[in-house]
Write a structure and sequence with these properties.
Oligomer: single chain
Largest sheet: 7 strands, mixed
Number of strands: 16
Shape: elongated
Strand order of the largest sheet: 3-2-1-4-6-5-7
Structural class: alpha/beta
Number of domains: 2
Number of helices: 19
Strand content: 15-25%
Distance between the termini: 19 Å
Length: 541
């Protein structure tokens, strides 16, 4: 977790020096955004610029409004590699004695929006108090909940990856309507909300940039837009409010006829011609797949350390289409075994020559299915693949039509019971390899998970593979298969010769194995984030 501070300022200079000093005392690098202040204020703000001491002042060429200034701060924070940003108003309204509590809440809840819950004193103008309550009511309507107690307090800690996803493809209000809008959009995205009490005052002589009529009109228009958007996306918001949607419950998009047309185009035009025809198809899925597009933006922002460009996000979708096509091509013999090169031939030879059975843990990074498709028949016969296919019925039906061998030695994970466990143990004893994915939570959401660090945030990863490995009593290997400029590279990594789960500290031991796996998965995903094919909220609670 790397956190900085963003202080937007338009002609506020009286208190900003002390605010910056307090932020630096807390160890926070500070970005002061001068929103085209007047000449005198501009000179005072420019005097704070001291990059060597952790203070950067960025002056905007024209007045963008508070929201525009904060978004410029987000851009600078992302470019500098920060994961979180603390927003503080420059007028001295916020009691910075609450700063340690804000930072502590962010450290304990890195995936959450940490927002100040203001405690006003008698200095608050009555008109502002009434206006805030009106906004609160609209926010309750827009979020379908009462969880947001105050959406206008400008003292908050943003998780930047979630912000990137919330702002993907939208143009939020750039003035006083920004604070409530970005909070509503983050709630819609499923971002957890943590509130910290903070005293707020209206200092004597305070210069307010709130334009009574213009900003009230902007805020009213913003609420109108948000209510309409809420109604348009009501089913999805209700599903998320009920706990979100598990990956296995996500509906399969597209039809079997489309897959058959794709295969026919490949046979007629080759892979290059087929991919050219797929570009507009993928564009339609990209535009219409709001949930998948948001998940892609969240992951890519975490992997790149900055918001992904529109081109990168589209290439992410296009890469998934290419992966799907390559699976069909491989199973029909269009990809020779020589196109899949071992990263370490010795490790692959050790696995192949070892008469013992093993557990191979794969992921939805790259194309592990392709590596199975190009194996010779005797080696492929050693594999038993545990899969969940019920959310991809049409894809698997067409794949079986193209190549019946693709469904051999495949066990549906939803059907695993005592008899299946015994069968898997017998297979391992015969020297076979059991293949299971280690990057998706249990089907139905009823199995145990460990929340471990993954790209700077706590992600739920399943304990099942490691519990199964302990039951089977066999060596565990990790398998990764990534596309390269020369074809595909497959890597077999030794993970453990045997996994033992003692009764006394079983939970801690399992968490340790899951953490080790997450570290290796992250290391491989960083090689090419665009080959990450989990298009759902991977960090969801």
């Amino acid at each position: 977790m790397r956190i900085c501070a963003i202080v937007p300022s338009f002609n506020h200079v009286t208190a900003i020096g002390g605010i910056v000093a307090r932020l630096r005392l807390a160890g926070l690098p500070v970005f002061v955004i001068d929103d085209a202040s007047g000449p005198a204020a501009a000179v005072a703000l420019a005097a704070l610029h001291a990059p060597a001491d952790g203070v950067t002042v960025r002056r905007l060429a024209r007045n963008e409004g508070k929201g525009g200034a904060v978004m410029e701060g987000f851009r600078l924070a992302n470019a500098a590699g920060f994961t979180h940003a603390l927003q503080v108003d420059a007028d001295g309204q916020h009691d910075l004695d609450a700063l340690p509590a804000m930072l502590d809440a962010a450290a304990r809840n890195p995936e959450a929006l940490v927002a100040g819950r203001p405690l006003f004193d008698a200095s608050m103008p009555r008109g502002r108090r009434i206006g805030r309550w009106i906004t609160h009511v609209w926010v309750w309507v827009e979020t379908l909940s009462l969880r947001v107690h105050d959406s206008m307090c400008g003292f908050r800690v943003y998780p930047l990856a979630a912000v990137a996803a919330a702002l993907d493809g939208v143009r939020p209000g750039r003035r006083m309507d920004f604070d409530p809008e970005i909070m509503v959009r983050l709630v819609w995205l499923g971002t957890p909300l943590v509130e910290v009490p903070v005293r707020v005052i209206y200092p004597p002589g305070n210069t307010s940039n709130f334009q009574l009529w213009r900003d009230n009109v902007r805020i009213s228009w913003m609420h109108t837009r948000m209510v309409v958007l809420m109604l348009l996306h009501l089913p999805r918001l209700l599903a998320r409010r009920a706990g979100g949607q598990h990956w296995a419950e996500m509906a399969e998009r597209g039809g079997a006829w489309g897959l058959r047309i794709c295969i026919g185009a490949y046979r007629l035009l080759g892979r290059g011609g087929c991919m050219a025809l797929l570009v507009p198809v993928v564009a339609w899925f990209f535009v219409s797949g709001g949930r998948q597009r948001a998940a892609s933006a969240v992951f890519l922002a975490a992997a790149f350390g900055r918001p992904a460009t529109l081109s990168e996000r589209f290439r992410h979708f296009l890469g998934f289409a290419a992966r799907t096509l390559d699976v069909f091509i491989a199973w029909t013999g269009g990809i020779p075994a020589s196109a899949v090169r071992p990263a370490d031939p010795a490790s692959l030879a050790v696995l192949r020559d070892d008469p013992r059975g093993a557990l191979l843990v794969v992921s939805h990074l790259g194309n592990a299915e392709l590596s199975r498709a190009v194996l010779d028949a005797p080696t492929r016969a050693r594999l038993t693949v545990l899969v969940h296919t019920r959310h991809a019925v049409r894809f698997n039906r067409v794949l079986r039509e193209v190549c019946p061998a693709a469904s051999l030695n495949v066990v549906e994970v939803g059907d695993i019971g005592p008899a299946t466990a015994v069968d898997l143990h017998e297979r391992v004893m015969r020297g076979e390899w059991v293949v299971i994915a280690g990057d998706r939570t249990p089907v139905g959401g009823h199995g145990r998970v460990s929340r471990v660090p993954f790209f700077g945030r706590a992600a739920p990863l399943p304990q099942g593979p490691w519990v199964l490995a302990a039951l089977l009593g066999c060596p565990v290997r990790l398998l990764f298969c990534l596309r390269t400029t020369a074809g595909w590279e497959v890597a077999i990594e030794p993970f453990a010769e045997r996994i033992v789960l003692p009764r006394g500290d079983r939970q801690a031991v399992v968490d340790g194995y899951v953490t080790r796996y997450a570290e290796r998965l992250e290391a491989w995903a960083r090689r090419d984030p665009l080959q990450w094919y989990n298009f759902f909220d991977f960090w969801a609670q």
